[in-house]
Amino acid sequence: MQEKPTYILAIESSCDDTAAAILKNNKVLSNIVARQAVHEEYGGVVPELASRAHQQNIVPVIDVALKKAGVNREELSAVAFTQGPGLMGSLLVGSSFAKSMAMALDVPLIAVNHMQAHILAHFIEEEGFDMPEFPFLAMTISGGHTQIVKVTDYFTMEVIGETTDDAVGEAFDKSAKILGLPYPGGPLIDKYAQEGNPKAFPFTKPKVPGLNFSFSGLKTQILYFIQKKTEENPNFVAENLHDICASIQYTIINILMDKIKLAVKETGIKQIAIGGGVSANSGIRKTLKEAEKKYGWKTFIPKFEYTTDNAAMIGIVGYHKFLKHEFNDASVVSKARIEL
Fold it and tell me: Which family does it belong to (predicted)?
C-alpha cells in the first residue's frame, strides 16, 4: 500500500518578500514570491511599509501557490511559517495567517527558524542538484547574517563562526551606496565586477581571530578611498566603476574563503554548502567551484531560487519537522532574533 504523501503549505515573511510554497514530501510543487519595489526609493527596507505590503500580498500569494501546485486546501497536511529572525511586523503577518489557516483546516502548525531553512534548502529534491551528507559545513551569507555552521544532522547545528558587526550582504549594499548605485546594490556590484580587474585597487582584509568575520572596517576603508579619489578626480567612480566593483568583490570573497579554509582545517570536514541571498553572487559561486577542484572539497550550491528568501526552504524544514511530529500550538510567538 502506497504511503499517503505529505503536503506542506509554507509561508515566508521575514523581511520584504511575501512568499508561499507547496511541497509534496521533499519536492517543490510551487514557490511563489511577491517582491516589494516600494523600498527602492528609500535605499533600504522600511519595516512599516514592508508589513503593510505583506498584508496586501499574503492572500493572493498563497492562492497562486495552491493553484499552481494543483493542491486543494483540504489536502494540506500542515502549515509551516517563519518564526524568526526578521522584522517583527513582517513576521507577525505570516505567523497570524499561518495560525488561522492551520486552525481552520485542523492541521498541525510548524514554526521554522529562517536561518535553519537557508541551510536545509539543500535537501529539496531537485534534478541536477546533489544533497550534502552529514556532517557538512554550511556558510550562510545574507543581508543580515554571515555564519559558518557545523551541521551534524537536520536539527543539530552549531555556529562555529559569525560576523562581529556587519553581515556580508550589508557590506555589498553599503559599498554600492558609497558608489552611488541604487538599492539593492549587491547584485549590481556583482554585475559590474564581471567586467573589471579584481586587483586594480587592493583593499586590506580585517584581522579577526578564529572563524569570526568583520566587515565594518572594510566598509569604512572603501568610503575613505572613494572620498579621497573623488576629491582628486570628480569622475573617478564613473571612469573606474567596473574595476572598483571587481576589487570590492574580490576582497569580500577572499575574506569568506580564508575563513571557510580555516574551518575545513579545524574540523576536517570537506563538504561545504552555501545558502542565503549572497550565495546568488556569481563570484562566490565560481570561487567555491574552483576550490572544489583545488582543495578536494565537495561544494553544494542551491538552485538560484532557493538562495534568496523563499518559502520552499521553509517548507523543507516543515516537512522534516512533520516527520518528527514537532508541532506548535497557537501560543508560539514570532521572534525578531532567534538562535540557530
Answer: Belongs to the KAE1 / TsaD family.
